[in-house]
Design brief:
Low-confidence stretches: 23-28
Structural class: alpha+beta
Strand content: 15-25%
Largest sheet: 3 strands, antiparallel
Strand order of the largest sheet: 1-4-5
Order of helices and strands: HHHHEEEEEE
Number of domains: 2
Mean pLDDT: 80
Distance between the termini: 161 Å
Amino acid sequence: MTTKHNREKAIEDMDRNEEHDRKIEFVDRRRIKSPDDTIDSPEEADLDRIPTYVEQIQTRMDEKESQLKEYISAHKEKMAEMDKVRKRLEEDVEHRSLNRFGEMIASLLPIIDDLDRAIEAASKDDAQNPMLDGVAMVRSNLLEVLTGQGLEVIDCVGKKFDPELARALSTIPVDDETKDNVVLEQLVPGYRFGPRVLRHALVRVGQKS
């Protein structure tokens, strides 16, 4: 009785092992289309339109690339705007500096005028006065320093009168047409610093009678 029971148990164990070792088989029922094949059912048409995983990844990459280009474009625009602002600030600072420097130079012009008057007065009294040479040297050195920094003496004698550079205090009657509206005499010198006129020259202009 025991032997028969053991035999039946052994057979049951073998059946269970065979069932455990049996491989699970998958049957691919997808249809492989040929170039001449046609779709007969709407279900097959829908399957053809389902994107693959690679296509989904490619779509996402295209979207990210488009976003990246937009970010780069926006960044370049911001950098260009910042560059324009920086240039405007630099130009403004430079313009302010030149104006302040021009004002400083303009404040020294009365000193040159005083030296010129002193030289003129001393020359009438005593042209051989050694003090006269000293004053003339100071005046020359000061003007040399200022011209080295950009100061220009306005030279308008013998040239057509330019109201941007000079002020006409009076006229001189002339018969020669070539001297009409021409600066014939300078009473007070004018100066400019770069494009800015610090002081207009005071002149007398010829006028055809």
